[in-house]
Amino acid sequence: MIGRKALGRMTPSAAILAVIALIAAGCGSSTASPSGTGSTPAGGVPTANLPVLKTIGKGEGALNLIAWEGYLQPEWVDPFEKQTGCQVHATYAGTSDEMVSLMKNGGGGIYDMVSSSGDADLRIIYAGDAHPVNISLIPSWKEFFPAFQSPAFNTVDGVHYGVSLQWGPNVLMYNEKDFPTPPTSWSVIYNPKYKGQVTIPDNPIQIADAAVYLKYHDPALGITDPYEMTQPQFQASVSLLAKEAPLVKKYWDLASQEISEFKNGDATVGAGWPYQVSALKGIHFPIGSVIPKEGATGWADTWMLAAKAPHPNCAYMWMRYISTPQVQAEQAVNYGETPDNSLACGYMNKIQAGSCDQYHANAPLSYFKAIELWKTPVATCDNGKPDCVPYSEWESAWITQVVG
Amino acid sequence: MAASAEGVTGARLSRLSVALWRRPWARATLMLTPALAWFVLIYLAALAVLLITAFWEINPFTTNIERIWNLSNFTEIFGNSAYRDIIFRTVGMAAGVTVVDAIVAFPFAYYMARLATPRMRTVLYVAILLPLWASYLARVYAWLLIFTHDGILNWTLGKIGLPSVNLIYTNKAVFIVFCYVWLPFMVLPVFAALDRIPPTLIEASQDLGARTWRTLRSVIVPFVLPGLVAGSIFTFSLTLGDFITPILVGGTGSYFIGNVIQGNVGIANNVPFAAAMAMVPVTIMAAYLLFARALGAFKAL
């Protein structure tokens, strides 16, 4: 009886429409949104003047981390927990966008750190979600390659907001049974011959992968930086992905999804991280991977400290621990990426002979330039002109023109 | 000692119940307040906040919310053909799932209500409820294992000499899984409606010379319709808002309203746009409920 009466009086849709109309009428005048969005805000970093820790105190017993899958393996997390008593609670994120979003969760008081990439770091810093870090408390930082000591993506005006971690390429993965001759070009994922067998990440930053391909194959477009594209260059990259869409079996959200796609035979070729390659090799699956001749996109990750980290002492202990050459070597070999610590090379070869060369830990500068590291596309290009397509347009183009 | 303490408590309780019996308004307030408070605070307040947020926007670089009133989220949703396609795809999927579930549920519920022995009825009842005790995720993953390229379905087809089918990561897979997971929500209200038809009415219909088809049309269907509509509210609204099944078994072109909302809340952190998008299913459901009310779905409550 109550339900019926209430329903009779409410007429929900009419009420909603009335409210919409009211609000719409009330704000008809103040419409135009401020432009200039997409570049770094003029006000600077909101958290720049927060006091940093002077000495590392007693651990709080817990550490809440947001990480890429494969970054918190028991091989190096278990010894850390035993040494410090800080229990690591992991949350895995599939994209940089998700990491930016998670850092805001609950007003930012839940997580201590995030292992975000160069395309997310500045967004987290300028949103006021990162805390300045006293880098002198992390001794191994001095052993880092100079390019990763104070890189522009995690250090603003000399203030560090985290400590650099590792870096590496996004690779072309293929099933060796289906590709007896290893592919040397990204063209295989755009080839109709492999319709329904291709898998690529569900991530707007993939537009840069298409740009890397076009930079090589269509020089007339004049792409110089895949993250700084003019509207025509951007559209060309998006249309390449839109043409690829019918060939794609699935846009994967989590690394584990891509692993099971290859394992179950649903995909035979695609774009992925070295982590999926080593995971599949670990179960003796015939997976191959290559950095194709066009080059590749890649990432440079940082353990960023959250502005409202509930366990700062454990966070500093973690930064100290993860930066040491031994642990850097362990993670590099396990994941298949390049460590930032210049002393890690020797330890890598101890874990797996030849791995230092294999993962380029001794020749980073030459190799460094072949990889287009993820960064946040902003409206202002490096030459100062406002011609570039900002990241918000990458996101909407990804949904409306590629995967939607 | 213990007995007398019990006696005191018992006396107090009976005094309380007398007091409540004398004041019906106090009884009603006491019983309804928790539920109503929950409804107003959690549900209506959340809905209001959602509605307001939809008229704000975010700074695209830091994703912080900027409280600037505008309609850009709505113009984007209705002006962009991709979002319109997603809305139509979602409504089409919800309608399709509802129709198939109704067709599958009706004979099943009819058998349960009118033909099965009491023992058989209990067995069927448990069979319908049992899957609801298992996690939704576990059930969807089970379908993933069935549909996948080297999965149970293709393995079976291969054993009996049939060509393999390509279902996983398609909208067909999403459709089948939706039909499966929401089926109990259709069977139960239809069963309840059928169970309530007095057998005398059917006998009377037959006594008056009506054949099976006529009895079905003039006696059974009018009784079952509110049950069907009630069930369709579940299947329709649950499909309208789901995003997990498309993520797990869907492929390209498996973006639904729920995925757009989830992507904007959980990944892009564009809460205002997600709020605007969430108003779409809310509005559709409001219209659907009004339609259901006109059909008398709530008379059965």
In terms of topology, how is this protein built?
The complex is a heterodimer of chains A (404) and B (301).
Chain A: H1 2-10, H2 12-26, E1 62-67, H3 74-84, E2 87-92, H4 96-104, E3 113-114, H5 118-126, E4 155-156, E5 159-160, E6 162-169, E7 171-175, E8 198-201, H6 206-217, H7 231-244, E9 248-252, H8 255-263, E10 269-272, H9 274-282, E11 287-290, E12 296-305, H10 312-323, H11 325-335, E13 338-339, H12 344-351, H13 355-358, H14 364-368, E14 371-373, H15 391-403
Parallel strand pairs in A: 1-2, 1-3, 8-9, 8-10, 12-14
Antiparallel strand pairs in A: 3-12, 4-5, 6-12, 6-13, 7-10, 7-11
Chain B: H1 2-22, H2 24-53, E1 57-58, E2 65-66, H3 72-79, H4 81-115, H5 118-133, H6 136-147, H7 152-159, H8 171-195, H9 199-207, H10 212-241, H11 244-249, H12 257-267, H13 271-294
Antiparallel strand pairs in B: 1-2
Helix pairs in contact in B: 2-13, 3-4, 4-8, 4-10, 5-8, 8-10, 9-10, 10-13, 12-13
Can you give a write-up of this model?
The complex is a heterodimer of chains A (404) and B (301). Chain A is α/β, with parallel strands linked by helices. Chain A has two domains: 62-167 and 300-359, D-Maltodextrin-Binding Protein, domain 2; 171-272 and 377-403, Periplasmic binding protein-like II (D-Maltodextrin-Binding Protein, domain 2). Chain A is built from 15 helices and 14 strands. Chain A has helices at 2-10, 12-26, 74-84, 96-104, 118-126, 206-217, 231-244, 255-263, 274-282, 312-323, 325-335, 344-351, 355-358, 364-368, 391-403; strands at residues 62-67, 87-92, 113-114, 155-156, 159-160, 162-169, 171-175, 198-201, 248-252, 269-272, 287-290, 296-305, 338-339, 371-373. The two termini of chain A are 43 Å apart. The model of chain A is unreliable at 1-39 (pLDDT under 50). Chain B is mainly alpha-helical and 301 residues long. Chain B has one domain (80-294): MetI-like (MetI-like fold). Chain B has a two-stranded antiparallel ribbon. In chain B, a hairpin with a 6-residue loop joins strand 1 (57-58) and strand 2. Chain B is globular, with a radius of gyration of 25 Å. Chain B starts with a helix and ends in a 7-residue tail after the last helix. The chains are: A alpha/beta (404), B mainly alpha (301). Chains A and B meet through helix 1, helix 2, helix 4, strand 9 and helix 15 of A and helix 4, helix 12 and helix 13 of B.
